[in-house]
Design brief:
This protein is mostly helical. It has a domain of 35 residues. Helix content is 37%, strand content 0%. It contains three helices and no strands. Helix 2 packs across helix 3. The termini are far apart. The mean pLDDT is 81.
């Protein structure tokens, strides 16, 4: 039989607050619409993803899809607004 834990009012020690980093439940069930495509990839690339997928117990197609999604999201960011050219006038040098 396990021994019972004995609690006391002694100080615990230095504590720190950890920010909540988990997504809300509704973000976990969101599924984007997928579009099926047919494409040819090099044998070396497919073998790489298959090996990595096996190590990580996942699907190699899912890994490739996530890679493409992340790449696309990096270049799909809104552009910064450009100056209209109005405002301060340039001095002639």
């Amino acid at each position: 039989m396990k021994s019972k834990v004995k609690y006391s009012d002694e100080p615990i020690g230095k504590l720190r607050v950890v920010d909540d980093f988990l997504p809300p439940p509704e973000d976990l069930v969101f599924k984007e619409e997928n579009v099926k495509v047919t494409m040819s990839l090099s044998r070396a690339s497919v073998n790489f993803f298959k090996n990595e997928a096996k190590k990580n117990h996942t699907s190699y197609q899912l890994m490739i899809r996530r890679l493409v999604d992340i790449y696309a999201s990096q270049f799909n960011k809104p552009l910064t607004t450009r100056s209209s050219g109005r405002g301060k006038k340039r001095r002639a040098g």
